[in-house]
Amino acid sequence: MNTLDNKRIVLGVSGSIAAYKAPDIVRRLIDLGADVRVIITEGGREFVSELSLQTVSKNKVHNNLWDKDAELAMGHIELAKWADVIIIAPASANTIAKICHGKADDLLSTVILATKAIIMIAPSMNQQMYASKAMNENLRILEARGVVNIEPGSGEQACGDIGEGRLAEPIEIAHQAANLFINNLLIGKKVLITLGGTIEAIDPVRFISNNSSGKMGMALANACVNSGAKVTMIIGSISTQIEKRAKAIFVTSADDMYEAVMDNIENQDLFISCAAVADFKPAKVSQNKIKNNTNLESIILSKNKDILESVCKLNSKPICIGFAAETENLISNATEKLINKKCDAIVVNDVSNREFGLNSDNNEVHFITSKKTEKIDKNSKQIIAEKLINKIVKYFF
Ligand SMILES: Cc1cc2nc3c(=O)[nH]c(=O)nc-3n(C[C@H](O)[C@H](O)[C@H](O)COP(=O)(O)O)c2cc1C
User: Is 17 touching ligand 1 by the criterion CB < 6 Å?
Assistant: First the structure.
């Protein structure tokens, strides 16, 4: 079960003796599908080698707020924005106190202040330190702010004491991070999602297509599976990893996609049309490769069937959510599509903005129903997908 697929995790390693377990935590997170970047404090550097962390995470380890080269590559604000989750493991008493009081005197504490990501801490310290009033109050304040506490275990400690304060097991930390993304919102529901681009043949080697990566649709499939749904994906041409817990049906052209959707639509509760389906195809496909000395001035196109509109017309139609990629008049064009196709909601994004375009890892969308339009601000496609599923469940289930 890869429940951290596509998730971006910053692991903060601070100065606890248990920092030597940090490479194992990185490995466990990667095993569950996460992309991991490590920030290490000065204290953390005393206990674990950056080379080990760099090797297992396959990324440069960030250790210094004042590193000019690092600021040019992925600076502290970018790192704070990049993360879906920041896990401080091990979290030293000092680092916990710093984030509790909003200090920003090193890279890790500054990134924590600058992030909108979920923050998890895995305290690790001597049992007396853990039992201290200051620590208890700090943890209470952080929990009230929504910081998730991965509680330490009890037993013999490195210093010889026995008691509570041992770092939670690396596998437990990874599973608690994965559990953040699991909910029951779509339990018992069946979801059909189309994603990726379609390929419309001109001749046996040439075609018309687009540069859809399928990342948004795959993030939606992942979010639906994490919400308990049984998911079928109709996949065109993509350049992203496949959600292995969903059923995958591969297609090439818009006609193939139409047939695959119609063959699988019965008994679905939710249809999400996220694929970038070609509107047009060559009217005639040449059986042989067109010679380059052919006097070919134009290609005659014919219109493809509209898959979303066809599903919306079915007698027992599921809840239908369409995607619109627009370059101008986003809201009015998408609202027109909502009305014309009679679907339940349209998700529109501005593909003229290269930050959120077809092949980007991020998106910014508007969710439009007949009653209202809501903006979902720029974020990773994974987080956008989770927010969209929340809205779909809230309005339609
Ligand atoms: C040998 C040794 C082991 C330590 N182990 C811990 C520990 O397990 N937990 C903890 O909170 N602090 C521990 N400390 C103290 C921290 O390393 C110290 O408070 C440091 O300032 C933490 O810095 P940081 O939070 O910026 O990483 C230890 C110190 C030493 C010298």
Answer: yes
Residues 128 and 233 in one domain: no
Q: How far is CA 25 from CA 47, 103, 264, 267, in A?
A: 15, 26, 40, 41
* Atom 25 of ligand 1, nearest CA residue: 95
In a domain, 264, yes or no: yes
Number of domains the chain contains: 2
Boundary of a domain, candidates 179, 199, 220: 179
Could you tell me if 140 and 247 lie in one domain? Answer: no
Q: What's the average model confidence in pLDDT over 213-230?
A: 95
Residue 73 belongs to domain spanning: 8-179
Is 95 touching ligand 1 by the criterion CB < 6 Å? Answer: yes
Distance (angstroms) between ligand 1 centre and the Cα of 15 equals 4
103 and 206 fall within a common domain: no
Residue among 100, 159, 312, 343 flagged as catalytic? 159
Beta strands in 113-184 (DSSP E): 118-123, 148-149, 153-156, 162-166
Domain of 257: which CATH number? Answer: 3.40.50.10300
Q: Is the CB of 212 under 6 A from ligand 1?
A: no
Confidence at residue 353, expressed as pLDDT on a 0 to 100 scale: 81
159 is catalytic: yes
Q: Are residues 40 and 134 in the same domain?
A: yes
Query: pLDDT tens digits, residue range 165-206?
Result: 999 999 999 999 998 988 899 999 999 999 999 999 999 999
121-142: average pLDDT: 97
The closest alpha carbon to 14, from 86, 108, 82, belongs to 108
Do residue 158 and residue 283 come from a single domain?
no
* Ligand 1 atom closest to Cα of residue 123: 11
Taking residue 183's Cβ as centre, other Cβ atoms within 10 Å add up to 16
